[in-house]
Amino acid sequence: MRGVDAPAVTIDDIEAAAARIGGQVVRTPSARSAILSDLTGAEVVVKFENLQFTASFKDRGAANRLHLLGDDERSRGIVAASAGNHAQGVAHHAQRLGIPATIVMPSTAAFTKVANTEALGATVVQAGVSYADAATLAETLAAEAGLTLVHPYDDPAVIAGQGTLALELLADHDLDVVIAPIGGGGLIAGIAIVVAERSPETEVIGVQSTTYPGMVAALDGRTLDVATADTLADGIAVRDPGTLTVPIVRALVDDVVTVEELDIERAIVLYLEIEKTVAEGAGACPLAALLADRDRFRGRRVGLVLSGGNIDTRLLASVLMRQMVTDRRIVRLRIGVDDLPGQLALVASAIGDTGANILEVDHGRLFDQVSARRTVLSLTVETRDFRHTETVVEALEGHGWTVVVG
After folding, report:
1. Can you count the helices (H) and strands (E) in the chain?
2. How many domains would you assign to the chain?
3. Helix or strand or coil: residue 148?
4. What are 30's strand-pairing partners?
5. Predicted TM-score (pTM) of this structure
6. In this structure, are 47 and 188 located in the same domain?
7. CB 295: neighbour CB atoms within 10 A?
């Protein structure tokens, strides 16, 4: 996909941003993941941007943009629209610099992100159901109140700030591929500019959710015809990518791929179980892309940008439980037994002997099509893995009971 158009932001801008915000943002670690490498067949390096103060790379662009404000702009204050991460980055650095901040967030924004933004001292206004709705109100407030609009991605200073991530990553590792989430395009634009200058042989790949591919549509000359974002990757659910970022992506990014929601869920769980770190949906997309197309990356040195960790705790709990069901670590067993005293105890004992754990029990006599002398036990059981589930089923069938899984 790379072309020859000159980007609106240069490597000099990004290096200047790095000097400007040094000490104001975290120089996040990046490290090889032995288990993810073994699992995927690639040499996997993870850049942990979820370890920024606000748990997202957005700290970088916000810090750079606010540092460039004039005294008059600082005194009048700023306004920004965001579903969460840009909101927190702007609020944090505005509070640190003593700049009044108003953040417009859609009503669908995660509770955690809204609460964190308010806790950082910003005035939060919620409007509409999408980022586009919030952005419209932010533009109105900027015009009416004389506030400076801090755009989350379509701003040279923001793009330059996000690009500082790639300066760090390439200073620490020689990579064949860098995979990053892509919404409005600010992050991947900054990354691509650095890679083109510092490591032009390195491939740059952007990732979006299949359910909300705004950048894919923009590169095809289309506008995404979707009202709301039905995706775990809400942080990159952007309908209208930037007028600055789209040309940079077209010129410097090698490919933009999409991933399914189940792959995003799987990646969130793997980060938690393997790396003991929390990834939000957008942050998990690069790993999801690697998992979905392992042959493409096998044997290559791949850098994954874990862009943020701001996921609602209830949603995270749901993802974890759903993945346990997918992995057959939580299963529902329907067991046909004689309707006699003590049968439930016998079944529970047989399951316990295998080392599995019974979570729920439903003892049905009236609504199942079985003999009046029989009954069906419906049990939700926790096991170690698929093989352990098979062991449980075999043990129950060994006692002469009929077992249906699911």
Report:
1. 17, 14
2. 3
3. strand
4. 47
5. 0.89
6. yes
7. 7
